[in-house]
Amino acid sequence: xxxxxxxxxxxxxxxxxxxxxxxxxxxxxxxxxxxxxxxxxxxxxxxxxxxxxxxxxxxxxxxxxxxxxxxxxxxxxxxxxxxxxxxxxxxxxxxxxxxxxxxxxxxxxxxxxxxxxxxxxxxxxxxxxxxxxxxxxxxxxxxxxxxxxxxxxxxxxxxxxxxxxxxxxxxxxxxxxxxxxxxxxxxxxxxxxxxxxxxxxxxxxxxxxxxxxxxxxxxxxxxxxxxxxxxxxxxxxxxxxxxxxxxxxxxxxxxxxxx
Length: 259
Fold this sequence. Notes:
Blueprint: H1 3-6, H2 11-17, H3 23-33, E1 40-44, H4 53-56, E2 61-66, H5 69-79, E3 85-89, E4 102-108, H6 116-126, E5 127-141, H7 147-160, E6 183-196, H8 198-205, H9 209-212, H10 219-232, E7 237-249
Parallel strand pairs: 1-2, 1-4, 2-3, 4-5
Antiparallel strand pairs: 5-7, 6-7
Helix pairs in contact: 7-10, 8-10
């Protein structure tokens, strides 16, 4: 199974334990892109809505495209009653948007799973002139807040982390948006903190694509080792999160793409 499809096997766990983004990030983005009623927005790969509600709450015409059937169904159960909510269960790479254009397209980590040329060229074509591309991700630092625990966890990884398929996906180069016609590329950072118990940390780790595919006989001692490390450290692990937001615009004088 492709890594980009593996999240669909754990929709409830994904929904509960994947991190959300800071309110400050959304306040900045919504103001930057001037999103509200009368504006059309596309979210690529919303998962179970980790980055959906603040944008949906603006009253914009919200659209999403979600690859996973189970994730799609959870999105429908959470937001399908909202009059400004629309979602399709399909692959962004091949989906025909039938002439629809958007004032903002955004992604919370999902765009990294799309080949760069497709990601940037297709989003560029789907945006109206002057429209915004926004890409966000979270980097969690759990070394500096609890270094001794971090070292214990690395020992567990060294001994038991034997995924069936190794994560070999190249790092997506967000800054390359400028190579595809985007202007005003910028990076902004926002900060937060998460505190998890041992059980919560294990459940969170189980939402990482390459952790999901760790097979037995390594799987059980791996996750048990992570749990024990946190329990021995007082049953708490702290993450210092950096929420990164990349933004860029389609030039206002760019011609509209037809078709």
